[in-house]
Amino acid sequence: MISRVLSADLPAHVGERVTIAGWLHRRRELKSVTFLILRDRSGLAQVVLPAGAVVPFGEETVLQIEGLVTSNAQAPGGAELTEPAITQLSGPAEPPPFDLYRPVLAASLPTILDHAPTTLRHPVLRSGFEVAAASVAGFRAALDGLGFTEVHTPKTVGSATESGANVFGLDYFGRPAYLAQSPQFYKQAMVGVFERVYEVGPAFRAEPSDTVRHLAEYTSLDAEFGFITDHFEVMAVLRQVIAGMAASVTERASSAMELLGARVPEVPAQIPHLHFTEALELISSATGEDVTGEPDLAPAHERWLCEWAEREHGSELLYVTGYPLASKPFYTHPDPARPGYSNGFDLLLRGTEIVTGGQRLHRHEDYVEALAARGEPTEPYAGYLQVFEHGMPPHGGWAIGMERWTALLTGAANVRQVTLFPRDLHRLSP
Amino acid sequence: MISRVLSADLPAHVGERVTIAGWLHRRRELKSVTFLILRDRSGLAQVVLPAGAVVPFGEETVLQIEGLVTSNAQAPGGAELTEPAITQLSGPAEPPPFDLYRPVLAASLPTILDHAPTTLRHPVLRSGFEVAAASVAGFRAALDGLGFTEVHTPKTVGSATESGANVFGLDYFGRPAYLAQSPQFYKQAMVGVFERVYEVGPAFRAEPSDTVRHLAEYTSLDAEFGFITDHFEVMAVLRQVIAGMAASVTERASSAMELLGARVPEVPAQIPHLHFTEALELISSATGEDVTGEPDLAPAHERWLCEWAEREHGSELLYVTGYPLASKPFYTHPDPARPGYSNGFDLLLRGTEIVTGGQRLHRHEDYVEALAARGEPTEPYAGYLQVFEHGMPPHGGWAIGMERWTALLTGAANVRQVTLFPRDLHRLSP
After folding, report:
1. pLDDT tens, residue by residue, A215-239
2. Domains and CATH numbers, chain B
3. B430: nearest CB among A90, A117, A386
4. Which of A363, A364, A362, A327 is closest to A342 using CA atoms?
5. How much is the pTM?
């Protein structure tokens, strides 16, 4: 291993000769002195060269620099490297397409995405992915602590039952196959094996719409568990997980959040909740527009409800429960007390839905009935229904879209800003 | 939440009335007594009914049982439930296709896989997936501790550069696309951003061969990191990770390993290593067959070498280094001291290769030269090569196949036994 000190650790080595290594972030040639700013995974280090020193390296060249650590209150972290001996570990064959050292990268989003392997090096752009990684770590830690088992389910599947329209088709050894839109069937089946499971994996939606919050491929944070009485217990476990994710971001990515000027949401001990019908009544009486007959919430309604929750409950998070059965997938459990409504819920954060979940059907006969009520044959669902023939407990779960969560946490206007290499209607590379 | 005690915790509640819940694992109707054995995620519980009691539930029915916890040395864990009041939470509409309570499931592998949602409930089959989950947790914990960042890279890609033959083609909004065979390009690009990254995700190989160790879709445990001097440093970090995975299995899945009659390998402080040419010489002089001209190791050679490592070094693990460049992908770094050989390595465990890794090229001009030496144009690799135009440190990494690792740990003869829902030439469901 190149024996090196990370730039963030330089202050602990004042008076010693050490080696640092990283990318040439910036050259500053002043009258009386020349500075090199070196960037590594921990931050920036200042290296001092005599005035008029020739710097034969372009920005983004990888350098290894041996030198004396010297106190300087003006340097990042209060220490800099003097008397440097520089070894070049790479060229750049090309100057970088943008000035990565500027506080804000001066380029349009499409241009940033076209050059992602380079532009993601910008400290602000990179920060979003530190928040994502911290969130996923918090998701797993919370569920590990609750006795959940991690599973990895297949992404190539033989039938496109959940929603045939928006599914990617695949040539599977000459046979038709599809990319999984969600691990829904598999995670339910695994409740029969482990009772409590989660998965972090890709989900694929051939969404023909081009919006700031949809992707053709995203990372889904799924959980499913058994022996519940209703969806309120799913919501209680989800609250613990959301709190764990927020705490993990605070613990592991606070400097990233600071750089982004973003704030971790406070997760109240009880996230306020509203029934779908109450939500529509509130909106109707507040806006004067009668929306009580609507089958679903429009984005503007979700924004209004979040403002209401903030105002009335001081909460950035809000559960809306009991969506109409007709607007939910066939496996959604009905509300036994309220015909036509479901035990499904959404969790809204800062004006946007970030989690969809609920209680599922668990009896074979209820699946058969639910499909019949929608006028669908059971035959294409034979594989799905198999597991319910052999004893399944009452169960439920949810899916969190990692990129959408990260966008809301970091204040990104477009989910593509917090997706490493986004895929959409128009974009398949890099 | 159904307020319940897990079966493993019953002994702590002797003398109390509690509720347990789970699947009816077995009915035992004896002359003087009837037992119900209930299975939950923690194990088995014995429930005592009077002799001649009618049990109207078939195996795999989900039950909730309230009763008195009573000491009984003959019961699992030393306690059983008496005076039971039983609530049925599900049917089974159908009797299970197999007796899940028998120590070994009496069915062929294809039959087991066809009924996976049910057969995976068998405690022995389920155990393999507990070992897999513990291994992945150990993988992440080891790398988190070494400053690695977790990434999620796209699985739908615009070009099939790594090996065009065995790639799945996709209809991507009317354009051709492919399923990623590995995150190789993306993890290398991310070394330019985070220095040290890992990913746990699916990889897709349209392998037309049908063997006990190949899958069309598997879970790849990838890592890549920068600022190395050569592949021996990749091997040193990998040793720490393998040790972390083994320790995690011991910690989190020891009863699963016990049920499988399997043993966690000991990971020596230094895993022994052999150069590829030394390995061939050893085999040649031991077997009398001259294999020194071979371009790669055959499976029989790998088995022989592992026996040798066990005999000579007391190690179940062995590194083979320096494979011929011609047998390695174009991004493999050559051995500067030995023309024609590479800084690539394999890690063998119990006779089989479980990890492939090495140092990669990091200079743009070296990529151009390596492709020219293979007679390949650079044009299809333009996206890949872009990142090397802007400064990349010397770096390397590896990929571990999760299912193959789990099969070797648990002694599964076929990798499909430890794959939740395997995908191969013939199998695309359930």
Report:
1. 999 999 999 999 999 999 999 999 9
2. 7-88 (2.40.50.140), 117-418 (3.30.930.10)
3. A386
4. A327
5. 0.96
